[in-house]
Amino acid sequence: MKRISLRLIALTLVLALALAACGNGQTGPGPAPDTAPDDPMAEGRPFNVVSLVNGNLGDASFFDSAESGLAELASRGIIEYRTIELGGADADQPRWRDTLIEVSEMGEFDVIVLGTWQMDEFLAEIAPQFPNQMYVIYDAVVNEPNVVSLNYRQNDMGFIIGVFAAAMTTQTDFPNINEDRVIGFIGGEDGPVINDFLVGYIQGALTVDPDIRVDVRYVASFVDTARASELASAMITQNNVDIIWGVAGLSGNGAAEAAYDHGAWFIGVDSDQEATFTGVQAPLAGITLTSGLKNIGESLIWVFEELDEGRTHWGEEIWLGLDMNGVGIVTDKNFATTPPEVQQLTLQALEDVQNGNITVGSAFGADAVDVAILRDMVRP
Question: What is the pLDDT of residues 251-272, one digit of tens each?
Answer without folding.
Answer: 999 999 999 999 999 999 988 9
